[in-house]
Amino acid sequence: MKKTVLKLVLTALVAGMSLPLSAQAADDALMKKIEQMSRELDELRNQVKMNEEKAARSAEEQKNAATKSDAKEIEGLKNKVAKIEEKSIGRWLTIGGDYRFRMDSLHGRTAAYTDAPTLSGLMPQVLAGTLPFQAAMAAAARQADKPKNETLYTNKFGLDLHAKALQDVTVNVKLDMYKTFGSQSDNATTGNYFADRIGVMDGTIGHVPSDGLLNVDRAYATWSNILDQPVWFSVGRRPSTNGAPSNLKLNNERPGNGGTPSLLVDYAFDGMTLGYAPDIDILPGAYAKVCYGRGFDSGFKTVNNSIKDTDMLGVAVIPYETDPLRVWLQWNRGFNIFDSSVMKDTVFGNTNVSTNLGSIDWYGAGAMSTLKKVGPGNLNIFADFGLSVTHPNTNTSNGLGLMSGTFDALFAGTPEPNTSKTGWGVYAGVRYDLPSKTKIGFEFNHGSKDWIPFTPAADDMWTSKVGARGNVYEPYIIQELNLKPLSSYFAKAFFKLGYQYYDFEYTGSNNWVGSPVKISSIQPSTILMLAPVKSAHDIYGTFEVKF
């Protein structure tokens, strides 16, 4: 029994001693496994990190590649758009224009006189002894009259085209239609009163009511920056109408370096211009130009046609042009002036021009200024002065020369010799522009006995007012609509109401054939080509859109 117990004790003791050794061994194995797993985890983490970095690099490379591809594609699209824009119409062609409805109420007063065309048509019978001279005079007698057109309606439409053909080369075109309501002729607006309103001439098409055709008013090409200098050359049907300072009343922008002073010239010429605009600090905006125009081409010279071409040469010097002040100096000469179209379709048998009467020199000087913040608005003022000097030859048109000769003298057998005549004219006005887009203006002009400008295309119904031999007064008011421009920066619409009063002192306004006759001296026996208008009124209103 003791041996059994002792054996059990010894066995337990051995077992107790062996347990720590086994646990220690187990712990060592576990630690080795943990360390191995940690190493594997670190390796896995490193692998994941490497994979993430590789993936990030790959994504960045793909992104860069995509960005480069997108940029290249965008650049390609930009180039395509640029090429398309270069060829697009909007880049090289600008379109604008204007529309005007106008209503005039015209009233005039003439003196009693004897009609020269009628009398001349009866002279063969008088000379043949079949008609007494006094009977012929009675047949040609015209009583004092009060001509009127109480409601004259007209439509005017213009289309402007500006094309940039090449670098520094542009083409400008203006097409105009101007007609009377209910008429396709000029009969409603012309009459036996003034030489510039007896019919439509080449230079007045689109400026005097005629028919519904869209005629070419301007068409010219301009080459600028010649040899990299401030020099330009322009040729074609030139912008020689509606010049300064008439732009104020017409509510137009200043005409720029293409215009002519409206006191001297208002006629659409075919010709050319050479201009120079130096950069002078003390003379901002200064430029000068030489202009040439063909007013009448006489055609082939034959044994039956010795008429010369009528040409115009002009020199314009604008020594100062800024928004506050514009100054101009002008000289023109008209060579081989044709006899007026007053002779057209009369009993004299003339058709158009029959002879050349001589030459005319014109001299002009003027200025216009804009004074800002004068009271609540801006004040525009202008003054223009002109001289006309005739140089007649020995030719006459039915006995009348250049500003020389009267029918009374012809019938009396004592024709007036062709001598040089000097006339003068002055044109002045103001326009006050209010913030409400209301513009209130007044203009005055006076012409002397022998004053004769070349302005038949002026925007006046009775006759070109600046060519009147006497006084013309014109107040007007313009009200622009306060609407947002859409077609262009300068687009606008407005109403205008005005009144013109002509007080004539001499006959022959805007006519260079024959001597002027003082209105107050006219008797019923006074022989005249046109009805002598003593005074005339025009109340007018317009609705205009410029786009």
For this entry, give a set of tags.
single chain; 547 residues; 2 domains; three-stranded mixed beta sheet; 22% helix; disordered N terminus
Count of DSSP H/I helices: 6
Overall pLDDT = 89
Strand order of the largest sheet: 1-4-5-6-7-8-9-10-11-12-13-14-15-16-17-19
Count every beta strand, where a strand is a DSSP E run of 2 or more residues. 19
| Topology as a string of helices (H) and strands (E) | HHEEHHEEEEEHEEEEEEHEEEEEE
> Class of the largest domain, according to the CATH hierarchy?
Mainly Beta
Helical content stands at 10-25%
Annotated CATH topology of the largest domain: Porin
Give the CA-based shape. elongated
Main pleated sheet:
16 strands, antiparallel, barrel
Q: Which regions are unreliable across 5 or more consecutive residues at pLDDT < 50? A: 1-24, 341-351
Can you name the CATH architecture of the largest domain?
Answer: Beta Barrel
Distance between the termini: 136 Å
Overview of the molecule:
- With 547 residues, the protein is of the alpha+beta class.
- It has two domains: 1-87; 96-111 and 147-546, Porin (Beta Barrel), CATH 2.40.160.
- Helix content is 22%, strand content 37%.
- The longest helix has 86 residues, at 2-87.
- Mean pLDDT is 89; it is low at 1-24 and 341-351.
Q: How does the SSE layout of this entry go?
A:
Elements: H1 2-87, H2 89-92, E1 93-110, E2 113-115, H3 116-128, H4 133-140, E3 141-142, E4 148-166, E5 169-180, E6 215-223, E7 231-237, H5 247-250, E8 270-276, E9 287-296, E10 310-321, E11 325-335, E12 358-374, E13 377-392, H6 407-412, E14 422-433, E15 438-447, E16 470-480, E17 492-504, E18 527-528, E19 533-546
Parallel strand pairs: 2-18
Antiparallel strand pairs: 1-4, 1-19, 2-3, 4-5, 5-6, 6-7, 7-8, 8-9, 9-10, 10-11, 11-12, 12-13, 13-14, 14-15, 15-16, 16-17, 17-19
Helix pairs in contact: 3-4
